[in-house]
């Protein structure tokens, strides 16, 4: 049964120093409010996991929360580079950032393996690229039926997963729809989970194509209206594209970023 | 011209894996001109999206609202891309070499201490491997068109013929490279990229100057038809 708790309490329970944690969201439903709470609580040495570390991860990295990043594409979508991420990789500021790098297909399959309770997943991927040489979590496996050699990727087990959704009911059953990315897989791959929601309703009306996370696979639900801003929650808000543009300017300069950070704390 | 040339490369009815930026503009231009039945698949999980304006990110709500179906990200890669159900994949490049290998990871230095850190692979390695064919769209500069890429993020033809087959890659690889200067295609015998068309007003010397290897020109080097009034009108409408 998921506990419905205030955001600060839920974050304190779910995300701990040294954790391997994913704040997932594929452009849509990115859990910004929860991420900012992690910055406020001063979590350290996190291994941040996400397919598309965008502005939220730039903020967490710049705030010094992260030791390592496991990812497949690190940019500000439609805008350009992540400057805090670059500064950490190229200059070790505010602290060095270790990288483990994959492709989207590899990351998605690593989550699927963990969510499925398997040690690894099989795909046709990475072939001919320089990526496998950079991590022990990409290997190969021979098909026991055909003898074909395929790519194997290690399951991506998480200590904690944090996602945002449109709504939950009073029992903590969660419903999300629109572009649902890998949020379900991330929650099922994690030992602890927190879902922030736009609202809590008496009854979850069924919606075609919606993903439901039943209360018994979620640890905490917190109400955080607008908690995906500047990303969006389909049918509740629209993406604040101006903020993504503005972030390029804010994040280029360490002092400018420090000012922004004060506003969060 | 790059966008128009890319749009023209898409035939009606094709299934196209689209990224944001120029590929998305080109695909939507094609859908409004000669390729009404183009199927747009975005890696965010939207299949058959028919956006009435250009999406601002691959996860733009307009894609979900207008799609035939919205599926999870594992499904897009495992069910739709991996088995070869996508005809055309679009890729960009920070570096591209004479065998169509692409780098979007790091430039200069070594991997752990790079000169420039780029966004990384995203969906590209598997798009390059599994789409029936790949169209690369990239601005032609000496820094981008290099003899050998610093890091192979996405495999083109490796260092020559037969390598894709040996690795078991199912797609035909980069069959078309569209730049701001012209169009390149791989030589069927050597797999090396060859300039096959120049865009209007571009002279061959400029292309040589902006290529970091000794670029070969096709014997029957052609000229790209200038954009039509209709193409320009739709493009203006789209990017307004």
Word description of this protein:
- The complex is a heterodimer of chains A (265) and B (240).
- By secondary structure, chain A is of the alpha/beta class.
- Chain A has a single domain, classed as Glutaconate Coenzyme A-transferase (3-Layer(aba) Sandwich), CATH 3.40.1080.10.
- Helix content of chain A is 28%, strand content 26%.
- Chain A has eight helices and 13 strands.
- Chain A has helices spanning 7-14, 32-40, 55-62, 83-91, 104-115, 183-188, 241-252, 254-264; strands at 3-4, 20-23, 46-50, 66-71, 98-101, 120-123, 138-142, 149-154, 158-169, 174-176, 190-201, 211-213, 220-223.
- In chain A, strands 1, 2, 3, 4, 5, 9, 10, 11, 12 and 13 form a ten-stranded mixed β-sheet that branches. In chain A, strands 6-8-7 form a three-stranded antiparallel β-sheet, covered by helices on one side.
- Chain A starts with a strand and ends with a helix.
- The mean pLDDT of chain A is 97.
- The mean pLDDT of chain B is 95.
- Chain B is 26% helix and 24% strand.
- In chain B, helix 1 packs across helix 2 (22-32) and helix 2 packs across helix 8.
- With 240 residues, chain B is α/β, with parallel strands linked by helices.
- Chain B is globular and about 45 Å long.
- Chain B starts with a helix and ends with a helix.
- The interface between A and B is large, with 54 and 51 residues.
- Chain A: It is an enzyme of class 2 (transferase).
- Chain A: Keywords: Transferase.
- Chain A: Pfam families: CoA_trans.
């Amino acid at each position: 049964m998921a506990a419905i708790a205030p955001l600060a309490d839920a974050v304190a329970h779910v995300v701990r120093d040294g954790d391997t944690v994913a704040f997932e969201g594929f452009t849509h439903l990115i859990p910004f409010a929860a991420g900012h709470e992690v910055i406020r609580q001063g979590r350290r040495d996190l291994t941040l996991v996400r397919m598309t570390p965008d502005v939220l991860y730039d903020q967490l990295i710049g705030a010094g929360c992260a030791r390592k990043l496991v990812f497949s594409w690190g940019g500000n979508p439609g805008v350009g580079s992540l400057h805090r991420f670059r500064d950490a990789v190229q200059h070790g500021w505010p602290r060095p950032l270790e990288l483990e790098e994959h492709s989207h297909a590899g990351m998605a399959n690593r989550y699927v393996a963990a969510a499925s309770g398997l040690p690894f997943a099989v795909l046709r991927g990475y072939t001919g690229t320089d990526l496998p040489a950079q991590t022990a979590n990409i290997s190969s496996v021979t098909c026991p039926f055909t003898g074909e050699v395929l790519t194997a990727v290690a399951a991506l087990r998480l200590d904690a997963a944090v996602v945002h959704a449109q709504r939950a009911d009073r029992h903590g059953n969660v419903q999300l729809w629109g572009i649902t990315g890998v949020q379900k897989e991330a929650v099922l791959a994690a030992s602890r989970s927190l879902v922030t929601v736009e609202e809590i309703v008496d009854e979850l009306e069924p919606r075609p194509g919606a993903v439901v996370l039943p209360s018994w696979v979620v640890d905490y639900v917190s109400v955080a209206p607008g908690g995906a801003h500047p990303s969006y929650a389909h049918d509740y808000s629209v993406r604040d594209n101006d903020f993504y543009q503005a972030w390029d300017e804010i994040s280029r300069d360490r002092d400018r970023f420090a000012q922004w950070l004060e506003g969060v704390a | 011209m790059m966008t128009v040339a890319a749009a023209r490369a898409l035939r009606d009815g094709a299934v196209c894996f689209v990224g944001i930026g120029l590929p998305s503009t080109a695909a939507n231009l094609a859908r409004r001109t000669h390729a009404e039945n183009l199927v747009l698949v975005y890696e965010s999980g939207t299949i058959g999206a028919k956006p009435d304006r250009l999406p601002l990110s691959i996860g733009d709500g307009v894609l979900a609202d207008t799609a035939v179906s919205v599926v999870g990200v594992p499904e897009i890669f495992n069910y739709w891309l991996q088995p070869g159900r996508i005809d055309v994949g679009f890729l960009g490049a920070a570096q591209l070499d004479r065998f169509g290998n692409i780098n979007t990871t790091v430039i200069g230095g070594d991997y752990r201490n790079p000169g420039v850190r780029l966004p990384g692979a995203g969906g590209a390695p598997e798009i390059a491997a599994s789409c029936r064919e790949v169209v690369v769209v990239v601005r032609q500069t000496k820094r981008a068109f290099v003899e050998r890429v610093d890091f192979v993020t996405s495999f083109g033809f490796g260092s020559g013929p037969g390598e894709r087959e040996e690795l078991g890659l199912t797609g035909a690889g980069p069959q078309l490279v569209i730049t701001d200067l012209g169009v390149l295609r791989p030589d069927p015998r050597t797999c090396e990229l060859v300039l096959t068309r120049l865009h209007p007003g571009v002279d061959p010397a400029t292309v040589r100057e902006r290529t970091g290897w000794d670029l070969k020109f096709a014997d029957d080097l052609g000229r790209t038809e200038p954009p039509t009034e209709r193409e320009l009108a739709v493009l203006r409408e789209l990017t307004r």
